[in-house]
Design goal:
Layout (H helix, E strand, L loop, with lengths): L3 E6 L5 E3 L3 E8 L9 E2 L5 H5 L5 E4 L2 E14 L3 E8 L4 H12 L4 E13 L5 E14 L16 H22 L1
Parallel strand pairs: 4-9, 5-9
Antiparallel strand pairs: 1-8, 2-3, 3-7, 5-6, 6-7, 8-9
Length: about 180
């Protein structure tokens, strides 16, 4: 099975309460990522209807679960998630601290493409995805959907954009 990853920043709608509860959008519909892929509205419907537990991982590492997603649903905007970081797990404590400090601001989905078609710009329109996991990540694929950190300056933003470009290139090379 070929598991793919799609990155999205937590965005301005993310909330972190009590240092452990996190919610926000893991995927946005109709927005091309740096790899040229666009997730279409309804892409997760079939997968979510199966009721399978979606895992919360650290940087897509299946050996590092860091919490649980209590709610995963589609709405008109994208894939919304809400869950709890487990502070009894070392990486869960680290994730809570890094999010609180603004050092980590990205979410990324791990999925298998069920249905997609090429678009006229060389990317893909993803119409059905089998969702496996949503990870907290360092570099989001959608850099304009990021949460602003305290003291965020243009130099930091430029470095994040450069890192996202490298990640996009890595994803394109992995697909070939």
């Amino acid at each position: 099975m070929n598991l793919e990853h799609k990155f999205c920043a937590l965005g301005t709608d993310v909330t972190v309460t009590d240092g452990t509860t996190i919610s926000g959008y893991a995927s946005l519909f109709g927005k091309a990522d740096q790899g040229g892929d666009t997730v279409q509205r309804g892409a997760y419907r079939s997968s979510l209807a199966k009721g399978r537990s979606i895992k919360m991982l650290w940087q897509h590492d299946p050996a590092q679960p860091i919490g649980v997603w209590d709610e995963v649903r589609e709405d008109d905007r994208g894939l919304w998630v809400k869950g709890r970081l487990l502070t009894d797990v070392a990486k869960g404590r680290e994730a809570a601290s890094l999010i609180g400090a603004g050092a980590i601001d990205g979410l990324s989905i791990g999925y298998r493409t069920v249905k997609a078609q090429k678009d006229d710009k060389g990317g893909r329109l993803l119409s059905e995805l089998e969702l496996w996991e949503v990870s907290l990540v360092t570099f989001p694929m959608l850099p304009d959907a990021r949460v602003a950190a305290k003291g965020d300056d243009p130099a930091d933003a430029a470095l994040r954009d450069l890192a996202a470009a490298f990640e996009g290139a890595r994803c394109l090379m992995a697909r070939d």
